[in-house]
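Attaching the record inline, Q. Sequence:
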Amino acid sequence: MKILIVSATKFEVEPLLKLMSSSASADGRLFSAQYKNHEIDFLITGVGMVSTAYCCGKVINDSYDAAFNLGICGSFNSNLEIGAVVNVYEDCFSELGAEDGNAFLSLEELNLQGVTKVKNESGALSIELEKLPKVNGITVNTSHGDEKSIEKVYQKFHPIVESMEGAAFMFACESERIPYAQVRAVSNFVEKRNKDKWNIPLAIKNLNETFLKIVDSL
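Structure, as predicted:
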């Protein structure tokens, strides 16, 4: 299989890159590797939905059999333990719309054309992927860290996780009709910002170990 792995930062997929002895392109964004019978490209987009959309649009094409977005995320659900790995099957651009006083209006409510929600219709890619909890998420420019804004966005969208790239990746894959999955590990809860409660190393460890199981089952 030819597989594309998309990550915002090299740090989030560093264990996989070391394991697979990858070689980098001149710009340092694209890494190529061989793993068993798979040809794997790693695309490092940089943080945020704009850079993710641009980089995915430049790289994704029908030569890939599958694409995976690997990264960490924050969880709105305290029952989802830090370090838990999830399959984000539905994502949305939660900030795309307009304010009307204290209310937020989505593009649909404004009767404007555009994409705000993306749902993965790829179907089952692997047995190991299907074992992961399926959750919905939001993609944001500003990670939530204020109790009022957290409550507001939760009441509007009822997300389980948030990231800064997920929906952009999913939109690119849907547009190119490439089978894909957004796989993320929880590094923190979405609450008033307190990095002492975060565990990024655990999230990255679990994310990379889980993806190895997924790719081994393809």
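The CA atoms of residues 141 and 196 lie 22 Å apart. The helical segments are 14-19, 49-59, 107-110, 127-130, 147-157, 166-176, 200-216.

More tomorrow.
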